[in-house]
């Protein structure tokens, strides 16, 4: 079964200008996603979907393919990840190239490694999931979360206010790094998560949302810590 890696990287990032090719510990951050995908040995093709000439050049420098540019409709702030995946796989199909499995890796995912990709794909394949993505456990039980209104605290789930943390179920959130999907799911063009979507747990150290400059610094610190303890 042929496998395609798609790395979405449009040029219009606003909160962190030129985010997808900003230097992250010595090289453009997109390079980490490209290198992890290539070194995993899993993919028949690793491509970057972009609307930006400079991003395209950086992507090709690090070994990715940029066979076509993203359409204007999917290069705005409102296009979803699924919109991009549908467009890319349709373009490949038009030239006679089809894939059974697609992995979308975000351009700002320096914690993704070849081992994580290989191990997560093994779970995806063995369990025959429609899709699979990495998740991180919340550090505190969300069942005991609170809200603040007019400086007053109240429990979102008052029935859990006096329960011990160890008596509450773990909760997780999407790590926002990559998504394995069957091509059939993309053909439907709707959602990534179905009633047959799998999870691949990673640690809090192995993930970091990067939405602002503080996030960026935290990500660099985490990355350097991981490298120091390998």
From TrEMBL:
It comes from the Bacteria. It holds the Pfam family CTP_transf_3. Gene3D superfamilies: Spore Coat Polysaccharide Biosynthesis Protein SpsA, Chain A. SUPFAM superfamilies: Nucleotide-diphospho-sugar transferases. GO terms for molecular function: N-acylneuraminate cytidylyltransferase activity. This is CMP-N-acetylneuraminic acid synthetase. It comes from Myroides marinus.
């Amino acid at each position: 079964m042929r496998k395609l890696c798609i790395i979405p990287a449009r040029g219009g990032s606003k909160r962190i200008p030129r985010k997808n090719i900003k230097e992250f510990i010595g090289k453009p951050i997109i390079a980490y996603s490209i290198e992890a995908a290539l070194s995993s040995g899993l993919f028949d093709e690793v491509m970057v979907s972009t609307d930006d000439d400079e991003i395209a050049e950086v992507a090709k420098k690090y070994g990715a393919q940029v066979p076509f540019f993203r359409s204007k409709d999917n290069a705005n702030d409102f296009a979803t990840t699924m919109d991009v995946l549908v467009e890319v796989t349709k373009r490949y199909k038009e030239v006679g190239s089809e894939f059974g499995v697609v992995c979308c890796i975000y351009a700002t995912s320096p914690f993704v490694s070849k081992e994580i990709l290989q191990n997560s794909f093994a779970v995806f394949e063995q369990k025959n999931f429609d899709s699979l993505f990495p998740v991180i456990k919340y550090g505190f039980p969300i069942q005991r979360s609170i809200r603040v209104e007019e400086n007053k605290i109240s429990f979102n789930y008052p029935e859990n206010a006096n329960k011990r943390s160890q008596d509450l179920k773990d909760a997780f959130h999407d790590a926002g790094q990559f998504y394995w999907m069957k091509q059939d799911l993309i053909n439907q063009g709707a959602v990534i998560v179905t009633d047959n979507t799998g999870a691949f747990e990673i640690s809090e150290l192995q993930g970091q949302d990067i939405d602002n400059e503080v996030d960026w610094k935290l990500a660099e610190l985490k990355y350097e810590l991981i490298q120091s303890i390998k």
